[in-house]
Amino acid sequence: MDQSNVTLERMRTFIRVAERGNLSAVAREMNIGQSSVTRHIRELEEALGVALFSRTTRRVTLTDEGSRYYAKALRILRLVEQAGDEARMGSGASAGTVRVSCTAALGVRHISRLIFAFQDRHPAIAIDLGLTDERIDLVREGVDIAIRLGPLADSSMKLRTLGASRRILVGSPAYLAWHARPTKPDDLAGLEGIRMSNIAGSDALTLEAPDGETHLVSFGGRLRTDHGLAAREAYLAGRGVGPAHIWLVDDLLADGRLETILPNLAPPSVPLNMLIVPERAGVSRVRLLVEFLAEEIMGIPGIERSP
Questions:
Q1: How far apart are CA 98 and CA 283, in angstroms?
Q2: CA trace torsion 38, 42, 48, 52 (10° rounding)
Q3: Please, are residues 149 and 120 in contact by the beta-carbon 8 Å criterion?
Q4: Side-chain half-sphere of 85: how many Cα atoms within 13 Å?
């Protein structure tokens, strides 16, 4: 084996190809040509004297030798990064990139602002912020931290419970002036509802009273959307009524452009969690951002700590 060809650069390329299974995706992520990715893998395989991948026209998959090498290489790169972190910590500095994935509307309305504040404190740390409501594979996509609303399936990720997001029913003053303002849950059946197409069961609303009494009411309407910001615009334009996270509409409520409907009833709160890739949790810049967000997110309107 020619040790001189087993470089950290080639190991990093190998690890991302192993995790993504796609050469062109890794090339875009690393901002290099696909030919460079192919060359890194070829040179590493030649240096090791084994085939690390089985290749098809669509995907590359690890061989048995590749799987064993991946586990060792991942530990080596983690140690290299931690060594760099410890060296920088001696000078009080932390640098590098943290990749964050966040629920889209929450990211636009609030998380992006928190990230600006974090970077003001830590100017050497770059943030790559991805906004999506899809459940992505964090390792495959190279993400360090994910902020997610809603229940989570079992995961190998490290879970940090942040709290819960309160919701209310809202509508515009113009819409409510034109239609009879609801005074009881059944009145909602006569109103145009704005429904979320990416939430199962959006044709019914569960409403909870402070005393624990629960109401299940039918909820229909001509507009369905898969994005919270589109629902916000629909409420504002007087297209109908519906449930909204408080953080989504707090500014519109404050200046009177939206109003709360049935204030003594509310849809159930939604869990808010942070997922951290275990192998990245010990990296200082990742740890700094996790602690910062966990604290600052509690200041977002409608977010409550879990009991």
A1: 10
A2: 60
A3: no
A4: 18
Contact yes or no for 150/270 (Cβ under 8 A): yes
110-117: long-range contacts, CB 8 A cutoff, minimum separation 24: 110/247, 110/297, 110/300, 111/147, 111/293, 111/297, 114/292, 114/293, 114/296, 114/297, 117/296
Q: Please count the residues of the chain.
A: 307
Backbone angles phi and psi of 205, in degrees to 5: -120, 130
The predicted structure's pLDDT at residue 293: 97
pTM for the whole structure: 0.77
3-class DSSP state of 11: helix
Q: What is the pLDDT of residue 297?
A: 97
Q: What is the CA 115 to chain-centroid distance, rounded? A: 13
- Integer Rg of the chain from CA: 24
The amino acid sitting at 19 is E
CA pseudo-torsion sign 279, 283, 285, 287:
positive
pLDDT at 88: 62
> Considering the chain, what is the average pLDDT of its residues?
89
